[in-house]
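Repro:
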Amino acid sequence: MKIYISGQKMFGADVFRLVQRLGHTIAGVSSPAFDGTGQREDKLRAAAGLAGVPWLESGRLDAHTLPEGVDLILAAHSHEFIGRKTRMRARFGALGYHPSLLPRHRGRDAIRWTLAMGDAVTGGTVFWLSERVDGGDIAAQDFVFVETGENPADLWRGKLAPLGLRLIEAALWDLNVGIMRRQPQDEAVATWEPSFGRPPLSRPDLELLGYAPGLTVSRAAARAA
């Protein structure tokens, strides 16, 4: 398959190397130019540069900048909203990874809310990107246990990032043999929590605004908002 990766940081670079290892063609990547300190090159951008893969700065990916002939867009630790017109230009659309058992803990700080709410079990979900942020059909999902004393970095690096790579690999294998898994999320149990001190996700080409019917904000999140 011909795959375009939108992401950042180590997870984006790990997904880049996974796609290479599986023998797919990487049509390009979109990422920030530098890491959060502004001093070092973003790891996904660096991986693309070493491989000679075209790079586009975050915020510029749209239906006009996506290369021709892309089969799938992969969002790997991406904070970009990939709009409908852009997704429709890829043969299969776009898949993303979210570090929670969707539809629980939608939002940009799922791991921190998992720990803040004392969840004993969490997991990761590969899902089809849609107009509803973190609300698309599920392609692959699995769980992990949360241990006492784990912090967000421990849970992400030790469990949820490796799980994400395994789930993305499984989803790519499915697509490669003609299987497209799409399990709708159960809106009756969906929750959304706000970000810890970060601006809302920018959605430049979102056509319909507002929360989806049935989506609830958890009580703890409502108190913090």
